[in-house]
Design goal:
264 residues; alpha/beta; 11 helices; binds adenosine-5'-diphosphate; binds magnesium ion
Amino acid sequence: MPRRIVVTSGKGGVGKTTVVANLGVKLAEMGQRVVLIDSDLGLNNLDVIMGVENKVVYDIIDVVEGRCPVKRALVAVDGNPNLFVMPSAHSYDKSYISGQNLRVVTERLSETFDYVIVDCPAGIEMGFHRAVASSSEAIVVTTPDISSLHDANKVIKMLGSYDMHITGLVINQVRGDLMVTSDMMNVEDIVSLLEVIPVGILPSDDVVGIHSSVGIPITAGNNIYDAIGVMANNIHFGENKLYDCTKRYKGFFGKIRRDVKRRV
Ligand SMILES: Nc1ncnc2c1ncn2[C@@H]1O[C@H](COP(=O)(O)OP(=O)(O)O)[C@@H](O)[C@H]1O
Ligand SMILES: [Mg+2]
């Protein structure tokens, strides 16, 4: 059964595009056929993060306005035959795209893909409603910060008015060192505040920005890669495991790591 999932948050800059890109790569590595849709019209980020911006010929507005068939606008991601990107418009010329327009695109793509993952723009205006209307499941991304939690809460309530399943919460940019010392809200408290099951706990890690800027996927051998793997398994297999970002900051060596982290 193909899945059409929107990744949303309310607040910008919390990691929606990062989650879409890395979840997409992981699911494709697991053998799933995956297409990632950038619905942030005019602010194309996803094609840049995926390293395909130079290969873009058509975009989603061309598809909706009938200038090219859906599949011709897809851009293949190098190194992974299962992974494609549907780019957003590079310049937003005020073309009107409705939720229904986008839904037609996601439904068409779900005929040949296992996962259609929609990257939602920030905010709770037209772009949010358009992205949400195109999907049947939602993943809500938040950071442990109060403003992000506030916006996530608002978005979760708004999703309640749609006929859609909330697949789960991704808590991103978690600082394990600060959680151990109670300087950052912990996972249990965030989950009980938002009342949505967690599907991903992702540590804050500089490799995210480094890999995004060069458009290559995060590779094995660091914490964030492992955490993304746990998240993908939870989403794909319905597992219920949580990556523990605090583990390496506990105990004797953990205290040393915390002290060092505080100084850098
Ligand atoms: N887990 C993380 N650790 C470190 N930096 C991150 C992490 N997740 C996202 N970022 C960085 O935060 C910024 C915003 O992320 P992005 O995915 O573009 O957010 P959004 O799509 O919600 O606006 C980017 O510079 C990205 O590299
Ligand atoms: Mg984004």
